[in-house]
Amino acid sequence: MSQHASQQIEGLNIANEREVLAHMSHTYGATEAKAIVTAAQAAFKQLPKGVQDYLDQPNPDNTRLTNSPSVLLMLALWGSGHTRLTPEAATKELQRLRTSKEYVACHRHEREDRPRDACRRSAASGSRPRVSRSKRGRTPVT
What we know:
Blueprint: H1 17-28, H2 30-46, H3 49-56, H4 69-79, H5 87-98, H6 101-106, H7 117-124
Helix pairs in contact: 1-2, 2-4
């Protein structure tokens, strides 16, 4: 697994909690941003200790995945049931995503010395693989 599992937002210092909250408030609105953070915190508590430790481990640049807006949103959605799959379905979906042309192109650097910017360029061009929701329900934000 790569050291930085979440894609960083250009110019956002995720080591600065205030900056992250301001970014989320600007993106989702203050009320929804607060609801996302609250739901993410509740979901985090449901995770196994090893996963909590991984997400909250400081990186060399003093950032933590738990401060990333994308990880906070993912945790909030996971906690609300949007991403629940059976282990078999999750394995199948992961295999499908990891063999997709886009994933292989973006993660070639893990096997070769390829710059990570290649993935950012393909994401910016809209060729990012899409993940379908397996279960629809209410979102954690209102």
